[in-house]
Amino acid sequence: MMLSKGNQSIIPTFILLGFSEYPELQIPLFLVFLSTYTVTVVGNLGMIIIIKINPKLHTIMYFFLSHLSFVDFCYSTIVTPKLLENLIAEDRTIPFSGCILQFCFACIFAVTETFMLAAMAYDRFVAVCNPLLYTTIMSQKLCVLLVAGSYSWGIVCTLTLTYFLLALSYCESSIINNFICDYSVIVSVSCSDPHISQMLCFIIAIFNEGSSLMIILLSYILIFITVMRMPSGRQKIFSTCASHLTAITIFHGTILFLYCIPNPKTSWLVVKVASVFYSGDSYAESFDLQP
Description:
The protein is built from nine helices and five strands, in the order βββααβαααβαααα.
């Protein structure tokens, strides 16, 4: 983690370039991101408060929704303030420890949100396809286990990736061409061979994205088949699932876009902007707040 120079230990310092290559866009981007962050914070905290104080919303669906809002609020708060600071401050340095901490918390909540959305898809599958057994299948114990499992898996993935990050060596000062300390960019500025770390990150990312999407797709395919067999009530069920599908589309769509974009060098500004906006995805779930 640290380099030695003579008898002194050197703690690496990173410089986050962010949007510094677009000076004319920094103020407009600051206002846009500040507005987005404000809406996200107010929306998610408001959602949590409303669910907490309204007895009619003390149901399984809103139990998941409150945790999704909390996770989304945490992720946004970890990422956006530093981004806003870098847009207006001349000093864009971040210590190695701060960079690792930002990555750790962002990774925990990103992975947790991935499986929280999958758990919500399974909840709606049971509600639509097995309504008579809904309360039996989606027991309080199972719901708590699904939520706790999402957080726990996020922590496990993060600790594993962080361990391999700390095992690498870094130069005294490195430039990160991004606005956050993402795993891939941290690895890219290391002075040692990052092959094992990159392969591990790839495997974990593929597993998380693939397994969660498989649960979501299978759930909604079965929901669609069940609904199409119903003589009535289709519109109500589809409207109930619409906001969740919107959140899934924004979250997973942005992730797939960021990692599948064919030419990132010519589209770097688009990549950076897109990676900011997905943090407000669960705000779309506010349309579910109907007593």
